[in-house]
Design a protein that fits this description.
Elements (H helix, E strand, L loop, with lengths): L4 E7 L3 H13 L4 E3 L8 E6 L4 H20 L4 E5 H7 L1 H6 L5 E3 L7 H9 L5 E3 L22 E5 L1 E2 L10 H4 L4 E2 L2 H13 L4 E5 L18 H9 L6 E5 L8 H9 L6 E3 L7 H6 L6 H14 L4 E8 L6 H14 L3 E6 L17 H24 L5 E9 L6 E6 L4 E5 L9 E9 L4 E5 L1
Helix pairs in contact: 12-13
The structure holds S-adenosyl-L-homocysteine (SAH), iron/sulfur cluster (SF4) and FE3-S4 cluster.
Length: 443
């Protein structure tokens, strides 16, 4: 019998990395099947993230722990992929000589060949070149692996924005958009296989198509319109957008496209104009608020979420207060917030860190406390409302308990006497609201 070897993948970071891990699993599927048990693996991929120092430390600590495993089993293949791998390249090998492969996000399509070389005992292979001519190849996702009802579809890679704190333009390279035709065939293929929800992924989806030759460009909004015509796709989401590029053409989609979920992730980062300027975000708070208001005029029930950084170099107490004031004005449905982390070679590393660690922690705690209470207040607004849910699955906690996700991206738990398939759409009335979930009653 031709038994397959076992592959373990650990994924850190964003949805782009999640999708890349799926692609890697599929690329290696002829020789490897995946396992959840790291100790039984013949090959281990650590798909790394370097957005903050802590994320990088986590990746290194897992890779470090594999040193012993490699000693015990020299045939074990260890690959580091993702943003830390891209960033560190050869340097990673000198720190972690037991690593066989260091592979950047644009090189994952070479994995079958790279694995073959590693299996033939070639040591220390680094594949991190970011050729200017690189295109994400047409690639049809496996229907056997991955979630049956919802999938991520990468529409572009990289970023040209160079926010001064951010490492992404260095790890993922300059912006490249996939061809609209490739994206549409991928989604057609998923829909034909029963996938009901797709999330389009890019670091800044609003600039989709800007790198394509003039006269032959598809804007992000027109891509959305074309995707929404695909039969079988019932829900459409996307992430993320830089507010400076949020166009009215996109806002209009929320009025026109029934399938587009009423949730918008619009990272603000700071409520202070001085800090936004120093971050090179290229919008003011006034412009941001204007866009939020306009967006809500296109779809009043839209759920808005954001990202916020505290303790950026030069952030005064007054700057921080401006962020606290902003969240009162916008009243986000949910938010992710982070302590600033210096990420060489991002430009902000040259700015003196003026906020102590303790102060950053205090500001973060103060911000998160208020963000949480706003989220709870927002969640309570749904009590008595009818929401459509896409079923995620049965809750492990109790019999007959099910969990689904609303278009607004809320997790809603409910009782059902019937067995429901993931991807089914059901209607509920919301009866209770907690911080992280709602409770509904099936209609
Ligand atoms: N492309 C996305 C952001 C991806 S990174 C966008 O522009 O919206 C996700 C979040 O991580 C960012 O929105 C930011 O809030 C946070 N982040 C990025 N770099 C950071 C750093 N150096 N320190 C702390 N948080 C950071
Ligand atoms: Fe980073 Fe800014 Fe690009 Fe987002 S838009 S990935 S924060 S540089
Ligand atoms: Fe992390 Fe790279 Fe994503 S740095 S957040 S895995 S783009």
């Amino acid at each position: 019998m031709n038994e397959k070897k076992l592959l373990y993948i650990e994924t850190f970071g964003c949805q782009m990395n999640d999708r890349d891990s799926e692609i890697m699993r599929q690329l290696l599927a002829t020789a490897y099947e995946t396992t959840d048990v790291i100790s039984s693996a013949d090959a281990i991929i650590v798909n790394t993230c370097s957005i903050r120092d802590k994320a990088e430390q986590k990746a290194y600590s897992l890779l470090g722990a594999l040193r012993k495993k490699k000693k015990e089993n020299p045939g074990l293949i260890i690959a580091a992929t993702g943003c830390v791998a891209q960033q560190e390249g050869e340097k990673m090998l000198s720190r972690m000589p037991h690593v066989d492969l260091v592979v950047g996000p644009r090189n994952i399509y070479q994995l079958p060949e790279l694995f073959r070389r590693a299996e033939q005992q070639q040591k220390g292979i680094v594949a991190t070149d970011q050729a200017k001519s690189f295109m994400i190849p047409p690639f049809l996702p496996s229907l056997q692996q991955g979630q049956p009802h919802k999938r991520f579809v990468t529409i572009m890679q990289g970023c040209n924005n160079f926010c001064t704190y951010c490492i992404v333009p260095f790890t993922r390279g300059r912006e490249i958009s996939r061809k609209a035709e490739d994206i549409l065939s991928e989604i057609n293929h998923l829909a034909a296989g029963g996938v009901k929800e797709v999330t389009l992924l890019g670091q800044n989806v609003n600039s989709y198509g800007n790198d394509q030759p003039e006269g032959n460009r598809t804007s992000f909004a027109s891509l959305l319109r074309r995707v929404s015509e695909i039969k079988g796709v019932e829900r459409l989401r996307f992430t993320t957008s830089n507010p400076k590029d949020l166009s009215e053409e996109l806002m209009q989609c929320f009025t026109d496209l029934k399938k587009l979920c009423p949730h918008f992730h619009l990272p603000v980062q700071s409520g202070s104009n001085a800090i936004l300027k120093s971050m090179n975000r290229r919008y003011t708070i006034e412009l941001y608020l204007e866009k939020v208001e306009k967006l809500r005029s296109y779809y009043p029930q839209l759920a808005l979420t954001t990202d916020i950084i505290v303790g950026f170099p030069g952030e005064s107490r007054a700057d921080f207060q401006a962020t606290m004031d902003l969240i009162e004005k916008v009243r986000y449905h949910a938010a992710f917030s982070f302590k600033y982390s210096s990420r060489p070679p991002a430009k902000s590393c040259q700015m003196a860190e003026t906020v102590s660690r303790e102060e950053k922690e205090e500001r973060l705690a103060e911000l998160q406390e208020r963000l949480s209470s706003i989220t709870l207040e927002r969640n309570r607004e749904y009590i008595g409302q009818r929401l459509e849910l896409m079923v995620e699955g049965e809750s492990k906690a109790a019999d007959g308990q099910w969990s689904g996700r609303s278009g607004t991206n809320h997790i809603v738990n409910f009782q059902s006497p019937d067995v429901l398939a993931p991807g089914n759409l059901v209607q509920v009335i919301i009866r209770e609201a907690c911080l992280h979930s709602l409770r509904g009653e099936l209609l």
